Amino acid sequence: MNKQNTGILSVPEGFEIIEGKGPFTDINGPFFGKIVSKEKVVRAFRVEKRHLNSIKIVHGGMLMTFADSALAAAVRHVSGRSSVTIKMNSEFLSPAREGDWVESDVEVIRSTRSVAFVRGELKVGKRVIFKADAIFHYVHARR
């Protein structure tokens, strides 16, 4: 593990903090990233107390927020283009708890001139906790 710290536990080797992704992400992060190959990027976050619901597991909205970010990051990494979510379907499979390291495993299935089709999983270790598939529309970034 390296010396980066989210306030609870260290961040696994190879992950760097993702900055400058907008106010909403800044409030819900920090999120971390690691480039695996030209086709694959991994996003992750360490579960903090503020991410929990009243029964002390990660709030579903946090998982959906993070998954949306991870899916969009994969689209950007593979295509080099900015995009916005048109549709995202999600499945909650298993809880994540405070201190867990949640990692994305995302695949861009198909990319057309205007949209990208993506699917992914969020995992704690080898345990899949969440699945999503989505469609993203390519946009021109405003300056």
Automatic annotation (TrEMBL):
UniProt keyword annotations, A-Z: Hydrolase
This protein's record includes keyword GTP-binding: no
Gene3D superfamilies referenced in this protein's UniProt entry, alphabetically: Hotdog Thioesterase
Residue span(s) of domain Thioesterase: 57-126
CDD domains the record matches: PaaI_thioesterase
Family (UniProt): Belongs to the thioesterase PaaI family.
Name of protein: PaaI family thioesterase
